[in-house]
Amino acid sequence: MHNDKTTLKDLSIFGADGEDVFSLINFTVTQAGRDMLVKHIQHPPDKLVQLQEMQETVRYLAANPGYGTTQISNGTIVMLEKFFESAEDTIAPPSGITLLLGSFFQKALNKNQYFITRFSLSHLSDFLSGCSELTTILDQGNLPTLLRKELEAMQSELQHPLTDDIIKITNDTPYSGLSRLSYDARRQMKNITYRLITHYSRLDAWQSMAKATLQLNWVFPKLEAASPVVFEATALYHPLLQNPVSYNINFNNNRNFLVLTGANMSGKTTFLRTLGVSALLAHLGMGVPARSLRISFLHGVITNMHVEDSLMRGESYFFAEVQRMKLTAQKLLESEPHLVLMDELFKGTNVHDAYECTRAVVDGLLHRPNHLMILSTHLYEVAQHFKDRQEIMFAYFVTRMLENDTFFFTYELKQGISHDRIGYRILQKEGVLDLLMNPKGAG
Protein backbone atom coordinates (compact mmCIF):
# COMPACT_ATOMS: atom_id res chain seq x y z
CA MET A 1 0.00 0.00 0.00
CA HIS A 2 1.27 3.47 -0.94
CA ASN A 3 0.26 6.51 1.11
CA ASP A 4 1.70 9.99 0.75
CA LYS A 5 2.36 12.58 3.46
CA THR A 6 -0.93 14.33 2.76
CA THR A 7 -2.94 11.17 3.38
CA LEU A 8 -1.07 10.40 6.60
CA LYS A 9 -1.68 13.97 7.77
CA ASP A 10 -5.37 13.97 6.82
CA LEU A 11 -5.88 10.73 8.76
CA SER A 12 -3.98 12.06 11.83
CA ILE A 13 -1.58 9.14 11.73
CA PHE A 14 1.29 11.23 13.10
CA GLY A 15 0.98 14.30 15.30
CA ALA A 16 2.94 16.44 17.71
CA ASP A 17 0.38 16.53 20.53
CA GLY A 18 0.04 12.79 21.15
CA GLU A 19 -3.54 12.74 19.85
CA ASP A 20 -2.69 10.67 16.81
CA VAL A 21 -2.97 7.06 15.71
CA PHE A 22 0.76 6.39 15.99
CA SER A 23 0.82 7.35 19.66
CA LEU A 24 -2.05 4.95 20.24
CA ILE A 25 -0.32 1.91 18.72
CA ASN A 26 3.27 2.69 19.71
CA PHE A 27 4.23 0.12 22.36
CA THR A 28 7.85 -0.15 21.25
CA VAL A 29 10.60 -0.55 23.83
CA THR A 30 13.38 1.20 21.93
CA GLN A 31 13.85 4.23 19.70
CA ALA A 32 15.12 1.88 17.01
CA GLY A 33 11.86 -0.07 17.24
CA ARG A 34 9.87 3.16 17.12
CA ASP A 35 11.72 4.26 13.99
CA MET A 36 11.06 0.87 12.41
CA LEU A 37 7.34 1.16 13.22
CA VAL A 38 7.22 4.61 11.60
CA LYS A 39 8.94 3.20 8.52
CA HIS A 40 6.46 0.33 8.40
CA ILE A 41 3.52 2.75 8.51
CA GLN A 42 5.01 4.90 5.78
CA HIS A 43 5.78 1.84 3.62
CA PRO A 44 3.33 -1.03 4.29
CA PRO A 45 3.74 -4.35 2.42
CA ASP A 46 3.54 -4.00 -1.36
CA LYS A 47 1.93 -7.38 -2.03
CA LEU A 48 -0.90 -9.40 -0.52
CA VAL A 49 1.31 -12.39 0.29
CA GLN A 50 3.71 -10.12 2.21
CA LEU A 51 0.81 -8.58 4.12
CA GLN A 52 -0.58 -12.00 4.97
CA GLU A 53 2.81 -13.06 6.32
CA MET A 54 2.97 -9.90 8.40
CA GLN A 55 -0.52 -10.42 9.80
CA GLU A 56 0.33 -14.03 10.62
CA THR A 57 3.37 -12.86 12.59
CA VAL A 58 1.50 -10.12 14.47
CA ARG A 59 -1.33 -12.55 15.21
CA TYR A 60 1.18 -15.05 16.65
CA LEU A 61 2.80 -12.39 18.84
CA ALA A 62 -0.62 -11.24 20.07
CA ALA A 63 -1.48 -14.83 20.98
CA ASN A 64 1.82 -15.18 22.86
CA PRO A 65 2.11 -11.94 24.88
CA GLY A 66 4.72 -13.48 27.20
CA TYR A 67 7.23 -13.88 24.39
CA GLY A 68 10.12 -11.44 24.44
CA THR A 69 13.09 -10.41 26.54
CA THR A 70 13.62 -7.99 29.41
CA GLN A 71 17.37 -7.77 28.86
CA ILE A 72 17.19 -5.20 26.05
CA SER A 73 16.14 -1.60 26.71
CA ASN A 74 16.47 1.63 24.82
CA GLY A 75 19.47 2.47 26.98
CA THR A 76 21.10 -0.78 25.89
CA ILE A 77 21.02 0.15 22.23
CA VAL A 78 22.06 3.77 22.89
CA MET A 79 25.12 2.56 24.80
CA LEU A 80 26.04 0.10 22.07
CA GLU A 81 25.98 2.83 19.45
CA LYS A 82 28.21 5.02 21.63
CA PHE A 83 30.54 2.10 22.31
CA PHE A 84 31.09 1.27 18.64
CA GLU A 85 31.21 4.86 17.38
CA SER A 86 33.41 6.43 20.08
CA ALA A 87 37.14 6.66 19.58
CA GLU A 88 39.27 4.13 21.43
CA ASP A 89 42.41 5.19 23.27
CA THR A 90 44.38 2.10 22.33
CA ILE A 91 45.38 1.20 18.80
CA ALA A 92 47.00 -2.11 19.75
CA PRO A 93 45.62 -5.07 21.68
CA PRO A 94 46.07 -4.85 25.46
CA SER A 95 49.26 -6.51 26.64
CA GLY A 96 52.13 -6.24 29.11
CA ILE A 97 51.48 -4.04 32.10
CA THR A 98 47.81 -3.54 31.12
CA LEU A 99 47.10 -7.22 31.49
CA LEU A 100 49.25 -7.61 34.61
CA LEU A 101 47.50 -4.86 36.57
CA GLY A 102 44.46 -6.05 38.46
CA SER A 103 41.06 -4.36 38.60
CA PHE A 104 42.02 -2.45 41.77
CA PHE A 105 45.01 -0.76 40.12
CA GLN A 106 43.04 -0.12 36.91
CA LYS A 107 40.38 1.69 38.92
CA ALA A 108 43.04 3.77 40.63
CA LEU A 109 45.10 4.61 37.54
CA ASN A 110 42.42 4.93 34.86
CA LYS A 111 39.06 5.12 36.56
CA ASN A 112 37.07 6.46 33.57
CA GLN A 113 38.39 3.90 31.10
CA TYR A 114 37.78 1.08 33.55
CA PHE A 115 34.14 1.92 34.19
CA ILE A 116 33.41 2.75 30.53
CA THR A 117 34.82 -0.59 29.43
CA ARG A 118 32.91 -2.59 32.04
CA PHE A 119 29.67 -0.63 31.53
CA SER A 120 29.76 -0.87 27.74
CA LEU A 121 30.53 -4.57 27.70
CA SER A 122 27.77 -5.26 30.21
CA HIS A 123 25.28 -3.68 27.77
CA LEU A 124 26.72 -5.66 24.88
CA SER A 125 26.40 -8.79 27.00
CA ASP A 126 22.76 -7.99 27.83
CA PHE A 127 21.97 -7.30 24.18
CA LEU A 128 23.52 -10.52 22.87
CA SER A 129 21.92 -12.49 25.68
CA GLY A 130 18.52 -10.94 24.91
CA CYS A 131 18.85 -11.73 21.21
CA SER A 132 19.82 -15.29 22.09
CA GLU A 133 16.76 -15.56 24.33
CA LEU A 134 14.50 -14.40 21.50
CA THR A 135 15.78 -17.17 19.21
CA THR A 136 14.92 -19.97 21.64
CA ILE A 137 11.44 -20.39 20.10
CA LEU A 138 12.99 -21.54 16.81
CA ASP A 139 12.56 -25.10 18.06
CA GLN A 140 8.80 -24.70 17.75
CA GLY A 141 7.25 -26.04 14.59
CA ASN A 142 4.34 -23.59 14.24
CA LEU A 143 6.23 -20.34 13.84
CA PRO A 144 5.00 -17.90 11.17
CA THR A 145 7.26 -17.77 8.12
CA LEU A 146 8.24 -14.12 8.53
CA LEU A 147 9.06 -14.48 12.23
CA ARG A 148 11.09 -17.63 11.62
CA LYS A 149 13.15 -15.92 8.90
CA GLU A 150 13.92 -12.97 11.17
CA LEU A 151 14.94 -15.17 14.10
CA GLU A 152 17.04 -17.47 11.92
CA ALA A 153 18.91 -14.43 10.60
CA MET A 154 19.41 -13.25 14.18
CA GLN A 155 20.63 -16.70 15.23
CA SER A 156 23.10 -16.76 12.35
CA GLU A 157 24.62 -13.45 13.47
CA LEU A 158 25.03 -14.82 17.00
CA GLN A 159 27.36 -17.59 15.79
CA HIS A 160 30.42 -15.33 16.12
CA PRO A 161 33.14 -16.86 18.37
CA LEU A 162 33.09 -13.85 20.71
CA THR A 163 29.36 -14.10 21.45
CA ASP A 164 29.56 -16.73 24.19
CA ASP A 165 32.51 -15.05 25.94
CA ILE A 166 30.70 -11.70 26.00
CA ILE A 167 27.44 -13.22 27.24
CA LYS A 168 29.36 -14.90 30.11
CA ILE A 169 30.71 -11.57 31.43
CA THR A 170 29.96 -11.06 35.14
CA ASN A 171 30.99 -8.60 37.84
CA ASP A 172 33.85 -10.98 38.63
CA THR A 173 35.32 -10.89 35.14
CA PRO A 174 38.86 -9.46 35.52
CA TYR A 175 39.73 -6.23 33.79
CA SER A 176 42.33 -7.98 31.67
CA GLY A 177 39.55 -10.10 30.16
CA LEU A 178 37.27 -7.09 29.71
CA SER A 179 40.04 -5.12 28.01
CA ARG A 180 40.74 -7.93 25.56
CA LEU A 181 37.03 -8.46 24.81
CA SER A 182 36.51 -4.71 24.34
CA TYR A 183 39.35 -4.51 21.84
CA ASP A 184 38.20 -7.59 19.89
CA ALA A 185 34.49 -6.68 19.94
CA ARG A 186 35.12 -3.20 18.52
CA ARG A 187 36.99 -4.69 15.59
CA GLN A 188 35.00 -7.83 14.93
CA MET A 189 31.41 -7.29 16.08
CA LYS A 190 30.42 -3.76 15.07
CA ASN A 191 28.64 -4.67 11.82
CA ILE A 192 27.20 -7.82 13.39
CA THR A 193 25.77 -5.84 16.30
CA TYR A 194 24.22 -3.24 14.01
CA ARG A 195 22.58 -5.97 11.96
CA LEU A 196 21.26 -7.53 15.17
CA ILE A 197 19.87 -4.15 16.21
CA THR A 198 18.00 -4.00 12.90
CA HIS A 199 16.57 -7.49 13.46
CA TYR A 200 15.60 -6.62 17.02
CA SER A 201 13.97 -3.32 15.99
CA ARG A 202 11.73 -5.20 13.54
CA LEU A 203 10.65 -7.55 16.31
CA ASP A 204 10.08 -4.54 18.57
CA ALA A 205 7.81 -2.92 15.94
CA TRP A 206 5.92 -6.16 15.30
CA GLN A 207 5.39 -6.73 19.01
CA SER A 208 4.14 -3.16 19.33
CA MET A 209 1.38 -3.85 16.78
CA ALA A 210 0.54 -7.10 18.57
CA LYS A 211 0.36 -5.37 21.98
CA ALA A 212 -1.82 -2.60 20.56
CA THR A 213 -4.19 -5.12 18.99
CA LEU A 214 -4.41 -7.06 22.24
CA GLN A 215 -4.73 -4.16 24.69
CA LEU A 216 -7.17 -2.17 22.55
CA ASN A 217 -9.28 -5.27 21.95
CA TRP A 218 -9.13 -4.94 18.19
CA VAL A 219 -9.80 -7.72 15.68
CA PHE A 220 -7.68 -9.00 12.82
CA PRO A 221 -9.36 -8.30 9.46
CA LYS A 222 -9.92 -10.88 6.78
CA LEU A 223 -7.63 -9.98 3.89
CA GLU A 224 -8.95 -10.57 0.38
CA ALA A 225 -7.41 -10.39 -3.08
CA ALA A 226 -7.42 -7.02 -4.82
CA SER A 227 -10.23 -8.03 -7.16
CA PRO A 228 -13.18 -8.04 -6.83
CA VAL A 229 -12.88 -5.05 -4.55
CA VAL A 230 -14.61 -5.28 -1.16
CA PHE A 231 -14.78 -3.33 2.10
CA GLU A 232 -17.26 -4.91 4.51
CA ALA A 233 -17.21 -3.82 8.15
CA THR A 234 -19.42 -4.20 11.21
CA ALA A 235 -19.19 -1.98 14.29
CA LEU A 236 -16.28 -0.01 12.83
CA TYR A 237 -15.26 3.03 14.89
CA HIS A 238 -12.61 5.73 15.11
CA PRO A 239 -9.90 4.66 17.56
CA LEU A 240 -9.10 8.15 18.89
CA LEU A 241 -12.61 8.94 20.16
CA GLN A 242 -13.45 8.22 23.80
CA ASN A 243 -17.11 7.42 23.13
CA PRO A 244 -17.24 6.56 19.43
CA VAL A 245 -20.33 5.68 17.45
CA SER A 246 -19.75 2.58 15.35
CA TYR A 247 -20.65 2.08 11.70
CA ASN A 248 -21.61 -0.77 9.42
CA ILE A 249 -20.52 -0.44 5.80
CA ASN A 250 -20.52 -2.73 2.78
CA PHE A 251 -18.75 -1.82 -0.46
CA ASN A 252 -18.38 -4.23 -3.34
CA ASN A 253 -17.56 -4.28 -7.02
CA ASN A 254 -21.13 -3.39 -7.98
CA ARG A 255 -21.59 -0.61 -5.44
CA ASN A 256 -18.25 1.06 -4.95
CA PHE A 257 -19.25 4.70 -4.48
CA LEU A 258 -20.79 6.33 -1.41
CA VAL A 259 -22.17 9.87 -1.37
CA LEU A 260 -22.32 11.10 2.20
CA THR A 261 -24.49 14.05 3.24
CA GLY A 262 -25.39 15.75 6.49
CA ALA A 263 -24.96 19.01 8.32
CA ASN A 264 -21.59 20.45 9.20
CA MET A 265 -20.19 18.85 12.40
CA SER A 266 -22.58 15.89 12.06
CA GLY A 267 -19.77 13.35 11.64
CA LYS A 268 -18.94 13.13 7.94
CA THR A 269 -15.21 13.88 8.24
CA THR A 270 -14.81 11.53 11.21
CA PHE A 271 -16.45 8.76 9.20
CA LEU A 272 -14.05 9.30 6.29
CA ARG A 273 -11.10 9.16 8.67
CA THR A 274 -12.49 6.01 10.27
CA LEU A 275 -12.49 4.23 6.92
CA GLY A 276 -9.00 5.47 6.06
CA VAL A 277 -7.45 4.62 9.43
CA SER A 278 -8.97 1.13 9.49
CA ALA A 279 -7.75 0.45 5.94
CA LEU A 280 -4.22 1.54 6.84
CA LEU A 281 -4.15 -0.51 10.07
CA ALA A 282 -5.37 -3.57 8.15
CA HIS A 283 -2.54 -3.13 5.66
CA LEU A 284 0.02 -2.97 8.46
CA GLY A 285 -0.92 -6.51 9.42
CA MET A 286 -2.42 -5.62 12.78
CA GLY A 287 -5.91 -5.48 14.26
CA VAL A 288 -8.55 -2.84 13.52
CA PRO A 289 -11.18 -1.13 15.71
CA ALA A 290 -14.25 -3.09 14.63
CA ARG A 291 -16.24 -6.21 15.35
CA SER A 292 -15.26 -7.51 11.92
CA LEU A 293 -13.66 -6.29 8.71
CA ARG A 294 -13.25 -7.93 5.33
CA ILE A 295 -11.09 -5.85 3.01
CA SER A 296 -9.42 -6.20 -0.38
CA PHE A 297 -5.71 -5.61 -0.72
CA LEU A 298 -5.55 -1.94 -1.65
CA HIS A 299 -2.82 -0.19 -3.58
CA GLY A 300 -3.23 2.94 -1.49
CA VAL A 301 -5.44 5.42 0.36
CA ILE A 302 -5.91 8.81 -1.31
CA THR A 303 -7.41 11.71 0.62
CA ASN A 304 -8.84 14.98 -0.63
CA MET A 305 -9.63 16.54 2.72
CA HIS A 306 -7.53 19.41 4.05
CA VAL A 307 -5.75 20.84 1.05
CA GLU A 308 -3.35 23.72 1.73
CA ASP A 309 -2.61 26.63 -0.54
CA SER A 310 0.94 27.89 -1.10
CA LEU A 311 1.80 31.55 -0.72
CA MET A 312 5.38 30.94 -1.85
CA ARG A 313 4.29 29.24 -5.07
CA GLY A 314 1.45 31.69 -5.63
CA GLU A 315 -1.17 28.93 -5.52
CA SER A 316 -4.73 29.64 -4.44
CA TYR A 317 -6.69 27.22 -2.31
CA PHE A 318 -8.86 26.24 -5.28
CA PHE A 319 -5.83 25.58 -7.48
CA ALA A 320 -4.34 23.39 -4.74
CA GLU A 321 -7.61 21.44 -4.63
CA VAL A 322 -7.49 20.97 -8.39
CA GLN A 323 -3.90 19.72 -8.22
CA ARG A 324 -4.80 17.20 -5.52
CA MET A 325 -7.72 15.95 -7.61
CA LYS A 326 -5.41 15.70 -10.62
CA LEU A 327 -3.08 13.50 -8.60
CA THR A 328 -6.08 11.39 -7.57
CA ALA A 329 -7.15 10.98 -11.20
CA GLN A 330 -3.63 9.88 -12.16
CA LYS A 331 -3.57 7.29 -9.40
CA LEU A 332 -6.93 5.93 -10.44
CA LEU A 333 -5.59 5.13 -13.90
CA GLU A 334 -3.87 2.19 -12.22
CA SER A 335 -5.75 -1.08 -12.23
CA GLU A 336 -5.03 -1.84 -8.58
CA PRO A 337 -7.80 -0.64 -6.26
CA HIS A 338 -7.49 2.45 -4.07
CA LEU A 339 -9.61 3.85 -1.29
CA VAL A 340 -10.46 7.46 -2.18
CA LEU A 341 -11.75 9.77 0.57
CA MET A 342 -13.10 13.15 -0.56
CA ASP A 343 -14.36 15.68 1.97
CA GLU A 344 -16.32 18.68 0.70
CA LEU A 345 -14.59 19.14 -2.64
CA PHE A 346 -13.78 22.56 -4.11
CA LYS A 347 -14.32 24.66 -1.01
CA GLY A 348 -12.11 27.32 -2.58
CA THR A 349 -14.72 28.52 -5.07
CA ASN A 350 -18.35 29.70 -5.04
CA VAL A 351 -21.24 27.31 -4.42
CA HIS A 352 -22.40 27.08 -8.04
CA ASP A 353 -18.87 26.47 -9.29
CA ALA A 354 -18.29 23.89 -6.55
CA TYR A 355 -21.46 22.06 -7.62
CA GLU A 356 -20.45 22.01 -11.29
CA CYS A 357 -16.91 20.83 -10.48
CA THR A 358 -18.06 18.17 -7.99
CA ARG A 359 -20.67 16.82 -10.39
CA ALA A 360 -18.11 16.58 -13.19
CA VAL A 361 -15.62 14.78 -10.92
CA VAL A 362 -18.22 12.26 -9.75
CA ASP A 363 -19.20 11.58 -13.39
CA GLY A 364 -15.57 10.80 -14.15
CA LEU A 365 -15.02 8.68 -11.03
CA LEU A 366 -17.95 6.44 -11.92
CA HIS A 367 -15.81 5.14 -14.78
CA ARG A 368 -13.44 3.62 -12.21
CA PRO A 369 -15.47 0.70 -10.73
CA ASN A 370 -12.42 -1.13 -9.37
CA HIS A 371 -11.78 1.54 -6.72
CA LEU A 372 -13.62 2.38 -3.49
CA MET A 373 -14.74 6.00 -3.29
CA ILE A 374 -16.50 8.08 -0.65
CA LEU A 375 -17.56 11.69 -1.17
CA SER A 376 -18.91 13.83 1.65
CA THR A 377 -20.74 16.96 0.60
CA HIS A 378 -23.16 19.52 1.98
CA LEU A 379 -24.24 20.28 -1.59
CA TYR A 380 -27.67 18.66 -1.55
CA GLU A 381 -27.94 19.21 -5.32
CA VAL A 382 -25.02 16.86 -6.03
CA ALA A 383 -26.68 13.97 -4.23
CA GLN A 384 -29.97 14.68 -5.95
CA HIS A 385 -28.34 14.71 -9.39
CA PHE A 386 -26.96 11.16 -8.94
CA LYS A 387 -29.76 9.65 -6.84
CA ASP A 388 -30.85 7.22 -9.58
CA ARG A 389 -27.40 5.74 -10.20
CA GLN A 390 -27.43 2.12 -9.01
CA GLU A 391 -23.71 1.93 -8.36
CA ILE A 392 -23.88 4.78 -5.85
CA MET A 393 -24.92 4.34 -2.22
CA PHE A 394 -26.32 7.28 -0.30
CA ALA A 395 -26.02 7.79 3.44
CA TYR A 396 -26.38 10.71 5.81
CA PHE A 397 -25.73 11.67 9.40
CA VAL A 398 -28.73 12.46 11.54
CA THR A 399 -29.32 15.83 13.17
CA ARG A 400 -32.11 15.86 15.77
CA MET A 401 -34.18 19.03 15.72
CA LEU A 402 -35.94 20.01 18.95
CA GLU A 403 -39.10 22.09 19.50
CA ASN A 404 -37.21 25.04 20.96
CA ASP A 405 -35.37 25.44 17.65
CA THR A 406 -32.21 23.80 18.99
CA PHE A 407 -30.55 20.63 17.71
CA PHE A 408 -27.98 18.00 18.53
CA PHE A 409 -25.94 15.49 16.55
CA THR A 410 -26.48 11.75 17.05
CA TYR A 411 -23.63 10.71 14.71
CA GLU A 412 -25.91 7.94 13.44
CA LEU A 413 -25.38 6.87 9.84
CA LYS A 414 -28.55 6.16 7.89
CA GLN A 415 -29.35 5.35 4.28
CA GLY A 416 -30.61 8.19 2.17
CA ILE A 417 -29.90 11.87 1.52
CA SER A 418 -29.91 14.57 4.18
CA HIS A 419 -32.08 17.68 3.86
CA ASP A 420 -30.68 19.37 6.97
CA ARG A 421 -29.88 23.07 6.75
CA ILE A 422 -28.62 24.30 10.11
CA GLY A 423 -25.83 26.73 9.28
CA TYR A 424 -28.05 29.76 9.85
CA ARG A 425 -29.32 28.32 13.12
CA ILE A 426 -25.78 27.81 14.39
CA LEU A 427 -25.02 31.42 13.53
CA GLN A 428 -28.05 32.50 15.55
CA LYS A 429 -27.40 30.13 18.46
CA GLU A 430 -23.86 31.42 18.92
CA GLY A 431 -25.13 34.99 19.06
CA VAL A 432 -23.16 36.18 16.06
CA LEU A 433 -26.10 38.01 14.49
CA ASP A 434 -27.05 39.69 17.77
CA LEU A 435 -23.52 41.01 18.13
CA LEU A 436 -23.49 42.34 14.59
CA MET A 437 -26.90 43.97 14.87
CA ASN A 438 -26.26 45.51 18.31
CA PRO A 439 -26.10 49.32 17.80
CA LYS A 440 -24.00 49.68 20.97
CA GLY A 441 -21.15 48.07 19.11
CA ALA A 442 -21.00 50.91 16.60
CA GLY A 443 -18.67 53.84 16.91
Structural commentary:
The protein contains 18 helices and 10 strands. With 443 residues, the protein is of the alpha/beta class. It has 2 domains: 5-215, Orthogonal Bundle (MutS, DNA mismatch repair protein, Chain A, domain 3), CATH 1.10.1420; 222-441, P-loop containing nucleotide triphosphate hydrolases (Rossmann fold). Strands 6-7-8-4-9-10 form a 6-stranded mixed β-sheet, with helices on both faces. A 4-stranded mixed β-sheet has the order 1-5-2-3, covered by helices on one side. The radius of gyration is 29 Å and the shape is elongated. The model is unreliable at 103-109 (pLDDT under 50).
Write a brief structural summary.
With 443 residues, this protein is of the alpha/beta class. The chain has helices at 5-10, 21-25, 31-42, 48-63, 74-85, 97-100, 103-109, 111-134, 145-157, 162-167, 175-188, 190-215, 268-282, 317-331, 351-365, 380-385, 423-429, 432-437, and strands at residues 222-224, 231-236, 247-251, 257-261, 292-296, 300-304, 338-343, 372-376, 392-401, 407-415.
Strand-and-helix sequence, N→C? HHHHHHHHHHHHEEEEHEEHEHEHEEHH
Specify the CATH architecture of the largest domain. 3-Layer(aba) Sandwich
Named CATH topology of the largest domain:
Rossmann fold
Q: How much helix is in the residues?
A: 40-55%
Q: How are strands sequenced across the largest beta sheet?
A: 6-7-8-4-9-10
Q: What is Rg?
A: 29 Å
Q: Major sheet, described briefly? A: 6 strands, mixed
Q: Say how many strands there are.
A: 10
Which tags fit this structure?
443 residues, alpha/beta, MutS, DNA mismatch repair protein, Chain A, domain 3, Rossmann fold, six-stranded mixed beta sheet, four-stranded mixed beta sheet, elongated
